[in-house]
Amino acid sequence: MSTMLGMGAAFMPMQFCTAPKKEEAAADAVVSKSKLDSFGIQLYSVKEDMGADAQATIRSLAGYGYKQLEGFDGGKGILWGMQPAEFKTLMSESGATMVSSHTNVYENLDAQAEQAAEVGMKYLICPWIGAQKTLDDYKKRAEEFNQIGEKLKSHGLRFAYHNHDYSFIPQEGGLGQDVLMDNTDPALVDFEMDIYWVHVANINPAEYLAKYPGRFRLCHIKDAEAGTGDPHQRGVLVGKGEIPFADLIKQSKGLGMEYFIVEQERFPTGTPMEAAAANATYLSALEY
After folding, report:
1. Which tens digit of pLDDT belongs to each residue from 221-275?
2. Quick count: other Cβ atoms within 10 Å of Cβ 117?
3. How many Å apart are CA 159 and CA 191, to the nearest integer?
């Protein structure tokens, strides 16, 4: 009987043994795609609105779908003139979290760190050091970053540096950004990749992320229109340019990226708040 069963299986009609149809495979591929659970916005994108009414602006942004916020010091401090208790109430009521803030980390760092820690921030970020004259100058900045990272660690915070294009412009046979990466302690210093500035500096963001896995924990989602020209004038709404964000998000999450933060600095049409709403709609629907 076992022999007959084996022979029966051998002559089973082919439709029971064929591979899945292409349509079924495609359906499985669609099901396997993911969406961002949460994403943020750099409040500098709506700086005028923040200056006019910070609380109302934050509530509106949360309503657009931004669950995470990254601040900047607009002259009123990293909490925009609010006391920590007031700020935490705003975050609780809006459903958002302030994960980080750009600030001058070379002044009043302890006081800023105390405020940041009290409201639950994870990072204080240096947004700018300017183009350095030599690679050795970049090495000196890296040493300073280690010291800043050590101080913030004592407050339970992380330190990160946000790039522009200048650190990706070749000089003396190297890149200033490489010097910063290679001479900072991963236990003390993380990095925030501004994808736009890497891209317009003619560096492949995906390749650079892979070169330094685990070092970039935050990124700025900012798109660039196709072509060349003034790098300050190529900004467009996310999804309207040439940067492949779906691929970048998928890859970067496998390399340690945790925070995806929209930043818009150029507004070809509409207001900054309209741009913020449009960018949130795009990211909410983006599959990777």
Report:
1. 999 999 888 998 999 999 999 999 999 999 999 999 999 999 999 998 899 999 9
2. 16
3. 8
Are β-strands 223-224 and 235-236 bridged in parallel, bridged antiparallel, or unpaired?
antiparallel
Residues 226, 222: Cα–Cα separation, whole Å = 13
DSSP H helices, 212-271, are 245-253
Q: Token pair for residue 33?
A: 């795609």
**CA atoms within a 13 Å half-sphere pointing along the CA-CB vector of 21:** 5
CA torsion sign for 213, 190, 278, 116 is: positive
Residue 14: Cβ within 10 Å count: 6
Q: pLDDT of 104-137, one tens digit each?
A: 999 999 999 999 999 999 999 999 999 999 999 9
Structural domains of the chain, ranges and CATH numbers in brackets:
43-285 (3.20.20.150)
Residue type for position 197: W
Percentage helix, strand, coil for the chain under 3-state DSSP, each rounded to 5: 45, 15, 40
Residue whose entry in the numeric block shows the structure tokens 């970020």:
125
Distance, CA of 28 to CA of 6 (rounded, Å): 32
Residue partners of 63: CB distance under 8 A and separation at least 6: none
CA–CA dist 65, 94 (Å, integer): 10
Instruction: Using the structure block, give the residue that is written with the tokens 């925070």.
Output: 259
> Per residue in 186-212, pLDDT tens?
999 999 999 999 999 999 999 999 999
Which residues are CB-neighbours of 274 under 8 A, at least 6 positions away?
none
Q: Which of 37, 33, 61 is nearest to 49 (CA)?
A: 61
